[in-house]
Each structure stands twice: as C-alpha cells, then as structure tokens.
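Input:
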Amino acid sequence: MSDLLERLRGRGWRVTSQRRVVAEVLDGDHVHLTADEVHARAAQRLPEISRATVYNTLGELVSLGEVLEVSTDGRAKRYDPNAHRPHQHLVCSRCGTIRDVHPTGNPLADLPAEERFGFTVSEVEVTYRGVCPSCT
Amino acid sequence: MSDLLERLRGRGWRVTSQRRVVAEVLDGDHVHLTADEVHARAAQRLPEISRATVYNTLGELVSLGEVLEVSTDGRAKRYDPNAHRPHQHLVCSRCGTIRDVHPTGNPLADLPAEERFGFTVSEVEVTYRGVCPSCT
DNA sequence: TTCTTGACCTGGACAGCGTCCATCGTAGGA
DNA sequence: TCCTACGATGGACGCTGTCCAGGTCAAGAA
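Output:
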C-alpha cells in the first residue's frame, strides 16, 4: 500500500494529508470498512477530516481500480483494498464478519449461452453465507 | 401466487386488503420490484395504503420464505417472488434490468475446506453482470 | 524560497431508503 | 352482532450518500 500513493501521484493525483490518511486506514488483509468506519479511523489521526472528503477519496480509489466496493448486506457499502487479487467473499449471517476467499473453478463458465438472454456477461460476484466460528 | 394467501392464512396470518394487494403486485416471473415500486403499484388499487405497511408486509413475506430480498446495486433492495425455485441473477450494468438465471454446477462445492475458515457455509449468492441487448 | 493557481477540503443542506411509534381501524372468532 | 388483539396509518427519525459555495493548500515556476 505504500507505493499506492506513488502510483496515484504518477497519475496526476495531488497527494494531500487527507488522502494519505484514507489510504493508510485501508491497508491490510480482510479489511472491509464502511465509509463511516473509514471516516472514524481517519479522524483519529486527522480530526478535522470531513465526511465528504472520505466519500470523495473512496470514490476516486474505486474508479482508479485500487479499491473494490462491496455491498453484502444492503446497508452501507464496504471498501476492500485487496483489488489486485481476484477473490470472493464469505460473510457471517450473524455478526457480518467478511473474509476474502478463493473458490476453485470459474463461475462464468457455469452460465450456459441459453441462460444469458443476449447479455454480454463480463463479471461474476459470489457471496458465500454461513456462521463464523465465534458465532457458532 | 393465489394459494399464497391460503398458505399464509394457515400460518395464522390475518388476511387484509393491504396484504392481498401487496401479494398480487408481487406476482409473476422476473419480477424484482423495489419497496417503493411495490407501494406505487399497490396504491393504484388501494390509494390509502401506507409505506410502512408495504415495508412490514414485505418483511413478513421475506421471513416466511415466500419472497427473496435481492440487493444488486447497493441502493434500494428488490423483492423477488420466485422464492421456491433456486436461481441466481443476471444484472445489466447500464440499465439495472435483472433476469433470473439457472447456472449449472454447484458453487458451494467450489469452496475448499481450507478456504472456509471454520465457517458453517450454507448459502451462495451469485450475481452475473454484463450489458443487456437493449443497452448494447 | 516565494509566488501562483487550480485542484482539493470543509461543513452544512439535502435526498433516498428504511425503521419506529402512538393511535386508530378492522378481521375473524365468540 | 360484539369484542379484542392484530394490523394499518402517517409522521418523526436515523443512516447512508450526494452536492455546493467558499476557503485552503500542494506542487510547479521563477
């Protein structure tokens, strides 16, 4: 994640303290924070950072393909920094915990032509649901 | 869908005109209405029906397993009356149209034990995304 | 280092979706 | 027909996300 800012600077991004803090908050594995959580953590380091800036920065990171948007519960969207390794999600139905998982096989191949209704299908998103060890 | 009301009455549901209208609106194939759309259509037949009642009724139908909740876009949830035949969804990224589809294979089997992190996995949700014929 | 400027940040207003609650109405059994 | 508990109403409220006018500052130029 440290070279993320360099990559963005190379694309003409102005590197500000706000953007740096948002990028730092989104570092790590199995990170799936809501915009509000990102804002709360960013505000610990930069108390005056505004909600609008967090939303803007997250939106930019998503358009640039550096962060994925995940909505597993129909409530707040979550932001997943693990955008460069394809993966799916495993969600606990009780507590909402999310893990990145790597299924075998290619679900795109499982959709026969006669089930495509003329669509040009380009993506598949798989969400596994169950109960995590702590909630069992 | 006509026996739905009978089934619900058998479970102790009080059948009111509001619940009947909501159930009727949700009849058909490839129906994926938002709560607001359900309310608008219900109000054509029963002008005084309230938003709260529509939300309550939809929530009850979901808990009873008669209707599925689908959130494909992170915005309003959609309600799918086709709850008794397992299926997945194909969504147009441009216009948002949703089709029910039936992939081959069993995605649950594609998640190896070492990728389950101790979860008891019980469900999979697959969303295919692409561009529909009208938007091409 | 200082200057300049346009991209960026801020805070608040606003909109969409959904929930809650006190009160009123009514389905369905006695 | 009457009673009553379950359901409907609608308005207030909360959360998530967007937009905007005005103030601020990163980074290149000199």
